[in-house]
Design a protein that fits this description.
By secondary structure, the protein is an all-alpha fold. The chain has one domain. Helix content is 79%, strand content 0%. It is built from 9 helices and no strands. Helix 5 (124-134) packs antiparallel against helix 6 (137-153). The protein is rod-shaped, with a radius of gyration of 27 Å. The relative contact order is 0.14.
Length: 281
């Protein structure tokens, strides 16, 4: 999977140190989510799917009576896959709340055109008001640049080129604060997309080994028992492929939105620098 690439300057070491407590908190929250999903999945697996009512032989739990019983016979990999699916759902929801908020209330292209119009009329306050209406990452970066833009208008110590560079630096710093928020936790989606299928195949192989080993110890192979064992083993593959499919769709969907936001940020930065260079030579 291709990573989202940007031409943004990295934050300074001072900014990185200031962000360490926040990163530590984020890692702790992520760990709590993962552990909670593991616990929930194992509870559902043992107490719901493993209930005696789902088996013909009751407490023995070797002959499933319905689909839930069949899932239970898939082995210990099944609850791991279930917890992976729960983690996926949690981070899909978390990314949706963050990214759609960052997208803003106004489309990036329309927002940039409005700001261009106000800057052409040298109305910086109106452009700042448009940033408040946009209320997204593009608006936040544009606002930071506009504040510096207004400051440079009244600056008599720097030449035009230096002023433009100052505005550009302010935009880069604001962008460096916005992009990590957008890309945060996407690694969970990409990792699940890659690993869920492999984990499902691993569970299937274990199930096949158990099935054929059981057949080898019997004098007369039972075709029905072998077919049942293979069916139970394939439960893992189905869960793994389904989880991986959803993770790939979610990852590509979110990265597409992030690419659009990143393009809007780049466009807003170009608009500010070009406008200043044209209006305040």
């Amino acid at each position: 999977m291709a990573d989202v690439k940007t031409g943004v300057a990295k934050p300074s070491s001072t900014g990185s140190r200031a962000g360490q407590p926040k990163n530590a908190n984020n890692m702790l929250i992520n760990l709590i989510v993962v552990v909670a999903c593991l616990a929930a999945a194992h509870a559902v697996f043992h107490f719901v799917f493993g209930a005696e009512s789902h088996f013909k032989d009751g407490a023995t739990k070797h002959k499933p009576a319905d689909f839930m019983g069949t899932i239970y016979t898939g082995g210990w990999v099944v609850p791991v896959l279930m917890s992976t699916a729960l983690v996926l759902i949690c981070f899909v929801i978390e990314r949706a709340l963050t990214i759609f908020k960052a997208k803003g209330k106004v489309a990036a292209g329309e927002f940039v055109r409005k700001v261009q119009y106000h800057l052409a009329n040298k109305n910086v306050d109106a452009a700042l008001a448009e940033c408040d209406k946009q209320a997204g990452s593009v608006g936040n970066v544009m606002r930071a640049g506009l504040v510096k833009y207004r400051e440079m208008i009244s600056n008599n110590e720097l030449d035009t080129e230096q002023k433009v560079l100052s505005i550009q630096k302010e935009i880069e710093e604001a962008t460096a604060l916005e992009l990590p928020m957008l890309e945060k936790n996407l690694v969970f989606l990409s990792t699940i997309a890659s690993c869920a299928t492999l984990l499902g195949l691993f569970g299937t192989v274990l199930g096949m080994i158990r099935s054929f080993s059981a057949m080898a110890t019997q004098g007369n192979p039972d075709a029905a028992a072998l077919a049942a064992g293979i069916s139970e083993a394939l439960i893992n593959t189905a869960l793994g492929i389904g989880t991986s499919f959803l993770a790939i769709i979610a990852y590509n969907f979110y990265t597409t939105i992030i690419d659009g936001i990143t393009f809007g940020i780049d466009e807003s930065g170009f608009t500010l620098t070009q406008s200043f260079a044209a209006n305040y030579k």
